[in-house]
Amino acid sequence: MFDKILIANRGEIALRIHRACREMGIKTVAVHSTADHDAMHVRLADESVCIGPPPARDSYLNKAAIIAAATITNADAIHPGYGFLSENADFAQMVEEHGICFIGPSADHIRMMGDKITAKRAAKEAGLPCVPGSDGPVESEDQALQLAEEMGYPVLIKATAGGGGKGMKHARAPEQLRDAFRLARSEAKAAFGNAEVYMEKYLQHPRHIEIQILADNHGQVVHLGERDCSLQRKHQKVLEEAPSPALNADARARIGRIACDAIRRLGYRNAGTLEFLYEDGEFYFIEMNTRLQVEHPVTEAICGIDIVREQIRIAAGAPLGYAQEDIRFSGHAIECRINAEDPETFAPSPGRIGGFHTPGGLGVRVDSGLYSGYRVPPHYDSMIAKLIVSGGSRNECLMRLRRALGEFVIEGIQTTIPLQNRLVSEPDFINGDYDIHWLERLVSGGK
Known about the structure:
Strand order of the largest sheet: 13-12-9-10-11-14-19-17
CATH class of the largest domain: Alpha Beta
Radius of gyration: 21 Å
Helix content: 25-40%
CATH superfamily of the largest domain: ATP-grasp fold, B domain
Number of helices: 15
Number of domains: 3
Low-confidence stretches: none
Structural class: alpha+beta
CATH topology of the largest domain: D-amino Acid Aminotransferase, Chain A, domain 1
Distance between the termini: 53 Å
Mean pLDDT: 96
């Protein structure tokens, strides 16, 4: 097992990884920008290294600085968390080349799944059902029009190197497609330095269902059930739950089996998440995340497995030590992402935290690096906390979640707690009757 792990991240996920390490008897190294010198993960780590100024490109995305920090602190391994360099194949390769273990999949698998076209081809070869679409990049507006005519409208243009909704546009008719194609390419170029796009059929009312998998270096692969991540705004997840209220036992078992079979064929190792759109009883693969997910706590709540701990064990060469039939799912869990944003306009709201009180009680977990007096910096993602609530049933979970949201106090800045309060009181959500477009209609007044 590792003696010391460097955590190449910040905020709540850095703190989450630190806690897993501490419970395993592993020392931690926190890296931080000058803006994060007083962050909670820096305060709690055994050692800390400043790696640059506030802009992420000069600190949390600075590969050389992070590897140098690991070298001078004699860290055995680097855990990248999520975001930043977590799915950067070049970084994973550099880490391994410096004799440091990268806690995650191989650079080859990160590279394969980082390009959406390559990922889709690999998924098809591995037996995963895919959304109908182009076999490769779409090079011109005329080609896009021809493909759309063949598959039928509406269609979706997506960046091959995309993520987070950037470089993604849909068109419902030919007159919209030319503008959508140009805008998607322009956004993709600006966001990823790669203007390449591809096309898929645009599903009308799908759910976003993802399957959490774990795979060790000894051929053992298991899934930890599904998460429903359909509540999204601008392709950014807002609330997640497990299990999905849209799946029955047969659908759940079927997609779990398909996911594990595909992972075995790919030879993948460590934690990963296969993401699908689900409509009319059918699953369609859309992408694979080769890292820890923001929403992993809801899975931990229903299966009792510490996913970060398992990532570390797998990276150290340990076998999983259990088979699929040993995993038991119990109850229901929901995660609310709390952002430092205006709950109506969604404008960022950085600033100093005043009063701060987290909810507690049975089945309530808060992952956050906040404390009273902490200043939320303006340089990074606006998510500042995650509220995870579990219960014996979905109804019990909802009642507990409403209570917990009512206890959550974050003063000094605006947050999306009021939005979450609204969501969990909406009849459609209470009934589990929503799709990936539902939240956009709600916040725009179109519902």
